Amino acid sequence: MRSVPATVDAVTHVAAAAAVEAPVPADAVGAPVPASGDAGDGHVPVAPNARVRVLLFASYRDLAGTGELEVRVRVGDDVAAALAEARARAPGLERLPQTLAVAVNGVYADFATALADGDEIALLPPVAGG
Question: What is the pTM of this model?
């Protein structure tokens, strides 16, 4: 995987040619599930939920019908899990390409990037021009 500039701003996201592309796993899910381990009392702990903002631009905004979604995933889940949850909440996002550029908290990232409560994922559409 190649290195990508750290900061994403209005100009940088337009020049997404150097963005990291990663496939969306078909089986990625964002619903809370029990963490491994059992305290012996029959109770299996659940990882705490994280609220994540998904920002959508240009054609991706058109697909979703909104420029922003809030999704919930487990703390430590990755971008792929958050995108699976976003697809479930906005059916138009089913038409997102399988590979797309993303940024987490203003930094280009791949789909394996772990998330925390309050993180922001930007979905960056391809840009044409010359």
Answer: 0.65
